[in-house]
Design goal:
mainly alpha, about 0% strand, elongated
């Protein structure tokens, strides 16, 4: 789904540069809106499952209630940092034992997502093709990085699940 959002951004970039008619913009914008809504639903289902898995791996690392997995995206102001925090806590809980996972990928994705939101707001106030192109380009990169985060976190959780439960070191001695 994130790949389709990225493809929609590419189509929007192409349409703005090659076919800047009102009809083309309306069709591409409508398609992008449908793709974004469908992707948001699938993404939130995935994130909910990842968060539940993270509780199994390390419940103490999950500082926020499950309701924030979805609510954090929709509550004004906190939606600028709660979703990132939820992803990072699941990321840390899913990291292989003894091998901490860095946060650079999540941080770059989240930064670009926020920049994408802000530039999208600018495009509603600007008729500039350059501003719209920049917004689409940032959103495109954010969508690709979001897909990479999804794939990596899913893989980390799969590998951790295959390891099975870890025994306390006292039980081994």
């Amino acid at each position: 789904m994130l790949g389709l959002v990225a493809a929609g951004d590419l189509a929007a970039l192409w349409a703005d540069w090659r076919l800047p008619s009102d009809l083309t913009v309306a069709i591409v914008s409508g398609t992008q809106a449908v793709l974004l809504i469908a992707t948001a639903v699938v993404y939130l289902c995935w994130l909910w499952r990842v968060r539940v898995n993270a509780e199994v791996f390390d419940a103490s690392s999950q500082s926020m209630g499950r309701g924030w997995v979805i609510g954090g995206w929709f509550v004004p102001i906190v939606n600028f940092w709660f979703p990132r925090r939820i992803v990072l806590e699941a990321w840390d809980a899913s990291a292989p034992q003894g091998r901490p996972a860095g946060h650079a990928l999540v941080n770059v994705w989240w930064t670009l997502w926020i920049v994408s939101l802000l530039t999208d707001r600018l495009t509603t106030r600007s008729e500039s093709v350059d501003v719209m192109a920049f917004s689409y380009a940032v959103d495109l990169v954010a969508a690709v990085l979001a897909a990479v985060v999804v794939l990596k976190l899913t893989r980390m959780q799969h590998e951790k699940a295959l390891q099975g439960p870890l025994l306390p070191t006292a039980a081994l001695g």
